[in-house]
Specification:
- The structure is a single chain.
- By secondary structure, the protein is of the alpha+beta class.
- It contains four helices and seven strands; from the N terminus they run βααβββαβαββ.
- A hairpin with a 5-residue loop joins strand 2 and strand 3.
- The chain binds coenzyme A.
- The site of coenzyme A (COA) has 20 residues, from strand 4, helix 3 and helix 4.
């Protein structure tokens, strides 16, 4: 099941952040700010017992949607949870032209996931992470991109 995250999910989300992102994990305070930040959509995936197994956070502004975070607990990976979260955050983004994200060049599972889901590398940000590794900026075109080709648009 996928549903919007609530304040009650904060402890579980904080634990998942630490498990998945270590020193780069968002604090519980930072996660709380994402719950109702401007343009944010924060979804959680739950298992049959109601435990949080994954989450995704997007920020929409104008015709861009940033995929700010996506994570699935190690013990639940490769069961399609991130795929379902991505489908869910894509719902209602038809107005937008692009979904953008940043991912470490060293993060092979995430790169494999995003490339398999129509994201392409459009830029590189050197020394982006604490370990000095570079971030790849990836883009997936969304239905609103068709408007960019309308006559009269520069
Ligand atoms: C990236 C991540 C979200 C994928 O979650 P997931 O629930 O395992 O993904 P799904 O099961 O929906 O999709 C799995 C697909 O992703 C890709 N993938 C996942 N792990 C992979 C790996 N280790 N190597 C290569 N491809 C991988 C494959 O295309 C795979 O499809 P397959 O199982 O049919 O081969 C998960 O690995 C994760 O949480 N990683 C740690 C946090 C992170 O790096 N988040 C992204 C940056 S914000």
């Amino acid at each position: 099941m996928i549903r919007p995250a609530t304040v009650a999910d904060l402890p579980a989300l904080s634990a998942l952040e630490s498990e998945l992102f270590g020193v780069d994990a968002w604090s519980e305070h930072a996660i709380a700010e994402e719950l109702d930040g401007p343009g944010r959509r924060f979804l959680v995936a739950l298992d049959d017992l109601g435990q949080v197994t994954g989450y995704a956070v997007t920020r929409a502004s104008d015709d861009l949607v940033d995929l700010m975070r996506m994570g699935v607990s190690s013990s639940h990976q490769r069961h399609g949870i991130a795929s379902r979260l991505l489908e869910a955050v894509l719902e209602g983004t038809d107005h937008a032209s692009r979904m953008l994200l940043e991912v470490s060049v060293l993060n092979a599972p995430a790169l494999g996931f995003y490339v398999a889901r129509q994201f392409s590398v459009i830029d590189v940000r050197p020394h982006y992470y604490r370990d000095g590794s570079e971030a790849l900026v990836m883009c997936r075109w969304l239905p609103g991109a068709n408007r960019l080709a309308e006559p009269g648009r520069a």
